[in-house]
Each structure stands twice: as structure tokens, then as C-alpha cells.
Amino acid sequence: TEKKEVKYGTLTPKHRTDPAMEKFRDYGLGQFIHWGLYAIPGNEWEGVSARKGAAASEWIRTWSGETAPKGWKKTYDNLYKKFDPKDFDANAWAKQAKDMGAKYMIFTTKQHDGFALWPTKYSDYNITKSPYKKDIVKEVVDAYTAQGIDVYLYFSVLEWNNPDYLTKEPQTEEEKKKYNKFLQYTKNQLMELLDLYPEIKGFWFDGTWDQSWVKAYDFTYNLEKELRAKHPGLIIGSRFRNDEFGKRHFDSNGEILGDYEQGWERKLPQEYEWLDGNDWDAVMTIPPNGWGYMKDWSGLYTKTTDDLLDMLMQTVSMNGNFVLNFGPDGNGLMHPEEDIIAKELGDWMKVNAEAVYGVRHVDLPKTKLGYYTQKDKNLGLYHIYISVNIRSNQFLRVCG
Ligand code: JFZ
């Protein structure tokens, strides 16, 4: 097939071989943390659940209809005045993640509500205006880095309450002016994050689906270049930008945009071939949906440790990283069920880590017993592990 002329296509090779990317490839297991103002309501308000089926708890600001409290959006936007997590201990989080076996973590610097957990110069809607005041992003980056866990920053481009934000492509001169201001603000914040936290390994972008951003391909193309120039080795997923034809994740020639495929969210590929040799991560919630703290898990199917181990092994057997989400509450404590799962995963990882870290896909027919992974193929030490998705069992080692 003929190659299409794409000016704003991919900027990086399909398979980066620099040390930063090789390290990414070996992580196996990661932790996601969604924390922000939504942690205070925990998907309910004054005894009324906003669940509406299984709507995502971090989207509670969009609560509408008969059950929504009066003036809800205003109430939500003022929650920062109550953000004072008295039990927050970044070192305790990092220790737990380490014990669980996470090699990297992704932390929400700013979700769709626009509230920044770091003292950004570019918006007043940030942590310094809360009673807590201190730089939460710094606490997290420092604590995890000290545990040897690589940190990636989640960043939502879209902001629900920013007057300069538009969802549609700007049309009038006034709209263009406003949106350009927003783009500059986004760039400033990203550069600021790289200045403040030079230890970070990458960004996990989100909220990039609106037409305003899609049509800003010239800006986003150059921004990607600038971010990479400022921070050599930076890792960016495929959810950051699109080409001039509006193609997201993959450009119009099917080339991956960014360094790894970022579309595996609460779902896993069935076939290795679907991945087309690209790097990837899978991000997973324990409840069906909902990334931020959800006080009440009753009536929802929540994944068991065995479910998650099965998903972890399926992921690493296909060369992906499995990233498990945690949503701490408004005081900074994990959900009690998350604590249990972290411990159980960690216990399993202590025995079976060899089948998870630095492993690669094995070209063998699938087995119902579990998943194959291999290591050290290049050294002629060819090991195949069969993980069994029952916690009491360990993987079987087959040497060849
Ligand atoms: C986004 C957010 O809206 C959500 O709150 C959470 O942060 C999650 C990790 O990311 O949700 C998405 C984004 C993309 C898809 C699905 C949910 N998608 O591409 O299928």
C-alpha cells in the first residue's frame, strides 16, 4: 500500500533502543494513583450515591440529573478548601508499592477538574490554596524515587472549569485567542513539571480527545519536540497527540504516535498480533470503573487478586506493562481492599518475580494452564515460565 504524505506524524522510532526505553520494557508491574479533589466525596455526597451504574468516581463533578445535589459543580470546585489529607504519607505509599513489586508508578498531577497537586505558577487552582498547602507531587516523586520506583506524571490536558478551554475547534478570533492562551498555559505547566521534577521518566497524557486539541496538531507536534529536547529519554504514550488528519494513537500510515500504545485501558488484547510489535501498557481498575476513591464498593464486581495476577501474566506474556490503579481517600489512605490486594500481589511477586520482570513474549501456542514468558533468550539461556493463575501455585520453570 502506498504511503500517505504525513507531516505531523510520529517523531520517534517504533522501537526505541535507548536505556530509558529498555528499562520501560522491563518493568512488568506498575502502580497508578488517582488522587485529587474527587477523593473527598468518594463518589457520594451527603449520603447520596453518584454511582449511576458504575460511573467513574473521578468524574463526579459531572454529576447531573435528579439525584445531583443543588449547585453541585460549585460545591465541587470549592472542595479544595477542604483538601487537608491528615494521614497522607508518601513514604508509606511508596513502601507499599515497593512491597507489591511495582517498578514504576503514574501519579495524577492534574485530572479533568484542573486542580493541580503541585504549586504551579500558571494557575491559582492549585495545592497551595488548600489547607494542606504543601507540594504533593514533590512528596510523591521523592518518596517513590527513594524506593527505586520510576515516576511518570499523569496530566489531563482538558479542564472542565478553565474559561480558556474549548472543546470544539476555535472559530472566532476571540475563541482562537482564548484557546491559544490555553495551549500556552498547557505548555508552561509541562515545562514547569520537567523543571521541578527532573527525575521523572515520562508523562501519561489524558483528556486529549476534544476537537480543540485534535486541530492543534501543529502546536502539539512542536510541543512534543520541545518536551523531548528538554528531557532526553522522556517517555510519552500514544494518547498525547494526533496527526493533521485527526488520527490519534497511530498516524495515517499506522505508525504509533509516541513511544508506547496507551489505549489498553480496563481491557487487554486477546492476541499478541494485535499489538503489532509496539510497546504498551495496560491500566486497570479494581472495581469495574472508577479511578478515584470510591467509598462504597458494594454491589460491584471488584477484581480479586487472582483475577489481577491472571491479567498481569497475560500482559507481560505479550510484552506489556500491567499498571494497577489505587484511589486513596480524602485523608490520603488507600481503600482497605486495595491494601489487601497490594499485600497479596506482593506476596506472590516475592516468589514469582522472575516470571514478570524483564520477560518477553514466547512464540508458542496458548495454554490454558497460564502464560509463557521468557528471559535471557539472547544469552542462550532460554527459560520459559508457565504462570498458573491460582495464588497458591507458583510458575513452573521449563529450561530449554
Ligand atoms: C480517562 C479519564 O477520563 C479517567 O478519569 C481516568 O483518568 C482514565 C485513566 O483515563 O478515561 C478514559 C480515557 C480513554 C479511554 C477510556 C477512558 N479510552 O480510550 O477508551
Automatic annotation (TrEMBL):
InterPro entries given in the database record: FUC_metazoa-typ (IPR016286), GH (IPR017853), Glyco_hydro_29 (IPR000933), Glyco_hydro_29_N (IPR057739)
A family per Pfam: Alpha_L_fucos
EC number: 3.2.1.51
Domain Glycoside hydrolase family 29 N-terminal: 3-354
Enzyme kind, highest EC tier: hydrolase
UniProt keyword terms in alphabetical order: Glycosidase, Hydrolase, Signal
SMART domains for the chain: Alpha_L_fucos
Functional note: Alpha-L-fucosidase is responsible for hydrolyzing the alpha-1,6-linked fucose joined to the reducing-end N-acetylglucosamine of the carbohydrate moieties of glycoproteins.
PANTHER family per record: ALPHA-L-FUCOSIDASE, ALPHA-L-FUCOSIDASE-RELATED
Family note: Belongs to the glycosyl hydrolase 29 family.
Record protein name field: alpha-L-fucosidase
